[in-house]
């Protein structure tokens, strides 16, 4: 018999029969006599046979053979045939050897003969693996010796599962050591499930999941049942009602909480965790969008145990290592929950005890509303997989780059949701967001070096970065104005007139804005090019049209100017002002356009104050408790219009709409003056504050006369502002002192998280949003499954408050 066949036969499950237990009548005719070659070639799947191997029948073995022959009829009822195998003299194989020829019969199962393969070397094992890749999985067992209870368990399992999995057996301790990098005890039997069906690359080894329990038939059955369960279960119902094979077998079930916009990343995280816990716990992906969970928004992992009546525990974990520890160490659950409760108590105590410390108003506002969930249905969350495809879907894509742990980002995100509500249904505009804490690679490639940041992408054009205020009105205006080319080229005088009236383009017809039209002749190409470059810079901040047809001269003469000229239309074209273009450099033109777009008599707000402070001119400001009267408004407007290129800014402030004005007046005067009150203040030259005489009525003539007295030095200032910088009234937090340093010798060096190169860095991985590094694919990194933990990406609702985002600076 060949050596290969000898290895196969040595894997057979044998049973030594006692002849005295077999009935003894009339069965000799059923005994078959075959040669070894014919016998092994005649084995059929699903059939068993009792075989006796012999060179010749010795007198001592004759009674044993007779008992075998007499049992043939009884065994036939059980589907077992009885065969005498005549061994040739030259055959010295295992079953025909002299030491096996006496008083032994073997029960052969053809199923096991075909399905259980015996291997001696690593090359043999790898050849079987390669033949199974993409087709079937493999069960590899090591037993120190055949005939043991573990050997029996493996063979019985092969009899049951042999048609589903390929069973491979070895008794070679060297081969067992070659299959693992760890030191293994070769005196104990071991079993591994090899996931070859999902592996198609011949170079890549099959994943292996070792059975940690003792090698018994019951444990093998349990292990194979777990290996056959789905790697990750999708859950769309109440998790309390979920039952999986893991719970039925007494193992816990881990839920990874997800949401639709980060589903792909969450799925990869769940699969990574599932491979780590395979055979120890089940893993399910629980969608917050499909299941109404009455749990904290920052919770990202839940644990369900098989014990009856034990509620599901919802936790906040930072990386996958903690998930694995959670399963392996049950006491870790209670510890995590206790830590969270202590943090909440500490937060409350610090908020009560730190009233003497200046806090960031933005952080305070975010903390105050941290339990209010943001309506983000209209804003698409983008990932590395969806970012570039999303830019191609619509004509204009607006992207908010933010960090979900950072208070200013969350405050802007709230304004962004209001913008989405205003623009709901607007054609050709997609509002989206990228969490730079989760996807630093996108933000780096898009040159986002600080956050929050908003960029607008148009097909075939360069992206535009928003650099204005973060209020809802300002953001909405920027997005709406960015829909239109800047400058917009107009083809006819009718289009130009409609543009000045606010009727063209149609997408801005219902949007109140100031229109700026540049009129150029064919001889003013240099000014026209500068105007176009200025339009590119001001895109999104202003609507700019351009008309340079042959009849441009007729259009400009209508408004008493000659090309090159600007026509400025306010209030829907009811007032059109003609301005000659004397400066033709791009920067000068940008500066001039920004100045001309300022209101003549503006209402000062927190949002627009920086624009007027940049002029570095004195302020003539009327403080009013509500809207100013019609007479005062008319007189102030006449004053502002009557002096071209004013040397001061005439404006007013509504204390009801901008209550910070009360603090300004208290800084100007010892006692609060009666309202309305007109103030002259030189913020950039001396800081002197003058109050218009309250006994005089606010008219253009009275104000001009008063200003002449100020110029002549005849008036005494009511107060003089300090030349010192205005600082917060209380000390601020020392961030550097609070940061945890990576290297003690370099106290200012803080560690970067996973290659994140953004300007703002949290001092540590903040509470809720867990994750950062893109994990390798299952197929290409199978050998690295056991690599140490990765952060949980996508498993926390990044849209609402994080664990630490709403806390004071000492907790950030």
UniProtKB/TrEMBL annotation:
The keyword Mitochondrion does not apply. Residues 336-349 have a biased composition (Acidic residues). It comes from Accipiter nisus. Residues 110-230 form the TXNDC16 second thioredoxin-like domain. Residues 1-28 form the signal peptide. Residues 380-479 form the Thioredoxin domain. The lineage of its organism: Eukaryota, Metazoa, Chordata, Craniata, Vertebrata. Residues 231-322 form the TXNDC16 third thioredoxin-like domain. Residues 333-361, 750-812 are annotated as: Disordered. Keywords: Signal. Residues 753-763, 800-812 have a biased composition (Basic and acidic residues). This is Thioredoxin domain containing 16.
């Amino acid at each position: 018999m060949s050596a290969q066949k000898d290895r196969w036969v040595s894997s057979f499950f044998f049973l030594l029969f006692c002849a005295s237990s077999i009935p003894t009548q009339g069965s000799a005719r059923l005994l078959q006599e075959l040669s070894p070659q014919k016998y092994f070639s005649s084995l059929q799947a699903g059939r068993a046979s009792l075989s006796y191997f012999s060179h010749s029948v010795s007198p001592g073995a004759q009674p044993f053979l007779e008992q075998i022959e007499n049992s043939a009829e009884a065994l036939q009822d059980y589907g077992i045939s009885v065969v005498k195998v005549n061994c040739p003299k030259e055959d010295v194989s295992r079953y025909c050897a002299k030491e096996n020829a006496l008083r032994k019969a073997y029960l052969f199962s053809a199923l096991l003969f075909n399905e259980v393969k015996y291997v001696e070397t690593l090359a043999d094992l790898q050849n079987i693996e390669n033949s199974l890749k993409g087709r079937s999985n493999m069960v590899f067992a090591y037993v120190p010796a055949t005939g043991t209870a573990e050997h029996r368990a493996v063979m019985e399992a092969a009899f049951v599962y042999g048609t589903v999995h390929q069973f491979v057996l070895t008794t070679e301790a060297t081969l067992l050591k070659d299959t693992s990098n760890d030191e293994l005890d070769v005196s104990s039997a071991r079993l591994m499930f090899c996931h070859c069906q999902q592996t198609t690359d011949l170079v890549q080894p099959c994943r292996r999941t070792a059975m940690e329990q003792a090698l018994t038939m019951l444990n093998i059955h349990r292990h194979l049942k777990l290996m056959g369960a789905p790697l990750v279960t999708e859950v769309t119902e109440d998790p309390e009602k979920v039952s999986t094979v893991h719970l039925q077998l007494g193992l816990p079930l881990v839920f990874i909480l997800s949401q639709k916009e980060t589903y792909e990343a969450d799925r990869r995280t769940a699969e990574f965790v599932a491979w780590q816990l395979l055979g120890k716990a089940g893993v399910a992906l629980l969608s917050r969008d499909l299941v109404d969970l009455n749990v904290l928004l920052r919770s990202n992992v839940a644990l369900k145990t098989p014990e009856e009546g034990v509620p599901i525990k919802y936790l906040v974990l930072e990386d996958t290592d903690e998930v694995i520890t959670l399963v392996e160490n049950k006491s870790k659950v209670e510890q995590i929950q206790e830590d969270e409760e202590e943090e909440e108590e500490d937060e409350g105590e610090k908020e009560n005890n730190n009233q003497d410390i200046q806090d960031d108003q933005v952080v305070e506002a975010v903390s105050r509303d941290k339990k209010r969930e943001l309506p983000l249905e209209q804003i698409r969350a983008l990932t590395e997989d969806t970012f570039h495809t999303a830019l191609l879907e619509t004509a204009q894509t607006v992207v908010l780059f933010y960090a979900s742990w950072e208070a200013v980002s969350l405050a802007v995100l709230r304004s962004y949701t209001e913008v989405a509500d205003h623009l709901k249904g607007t054609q050709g505009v997609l509002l989206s967001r990228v969490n730079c804490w989760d996807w630093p690679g996108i933000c780096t490639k898009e040159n986002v070096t600080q956050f929050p940041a908003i960029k607008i992408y148009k097909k075939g054009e360069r992206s535009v970065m928003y650099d204005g205020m973060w209020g809802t009105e300002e953001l909405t205006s920027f997005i709406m104005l960015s829909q239109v080319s800047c400058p917009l080229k107009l083809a006819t005088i009718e289009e130009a007139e409609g543009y000045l009236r606010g009727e063209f383009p149609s997408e801005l017809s219902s949007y109140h804005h100031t229109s700026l039209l540049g009129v150029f002749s064919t001889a003013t190409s240099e000014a026209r090019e500068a105007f176009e470059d200025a339009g590119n810079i001001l895109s999104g901040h202003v609507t700019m049209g351009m008309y340079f047809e042959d009849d441009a001269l007729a259009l400009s003469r209508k408004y008493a100017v000659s090309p090159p000229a600007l026509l400025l239309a306010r209030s829907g074209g009811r007032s059109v002002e003609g301005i000659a273009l004397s400066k033709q450099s791009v920067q000068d033109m940008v500066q001039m356009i920004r100045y001309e777009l300022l209101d003549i008599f503006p209402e000062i707000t927190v949002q627009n104050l920086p624009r007027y402070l940049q002029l570095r001119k004195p302020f003539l400001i009327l403080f009013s408790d509500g809207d100013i009267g019609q007479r005062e408004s008319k007189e102030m407007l006449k004053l502002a219009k009557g002096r071209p290129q004013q040397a001061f800014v005439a404006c007013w402030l509504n204390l009801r709409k901008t209550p910070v004005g009360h603090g300004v007046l208290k800084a100007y005067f010892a006692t609060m003056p009666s309202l309305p009150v007109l103030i002259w203040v030189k913020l950039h030259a001396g800081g002197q504050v003058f109050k218009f005489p309250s006994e005089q009525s606010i008219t253009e003539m009275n104000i001009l006369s008063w200003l002449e007295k100020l110029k002549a030095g005849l008036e005494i200032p009511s107060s003089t502002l300090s030349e010192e910088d205005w600082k917060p009234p209380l000390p601020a937090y020392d961030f550097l002192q609070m940061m945890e340093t990576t290297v003690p010798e370099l106290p200012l060096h803080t560690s970067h998280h996973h290659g994140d190169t953004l300007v703002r860095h949290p001092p540590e991985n903040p509470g809720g949003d867990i994750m950062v590094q893109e994990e390798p694919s299952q197929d290409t990194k199978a050998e690295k499954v056991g690599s140490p933990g990765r952060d949980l990406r996508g498993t926390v609702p990044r849209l609402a408050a994080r664990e630490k985002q709403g806390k004071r600076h000492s907790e950030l």
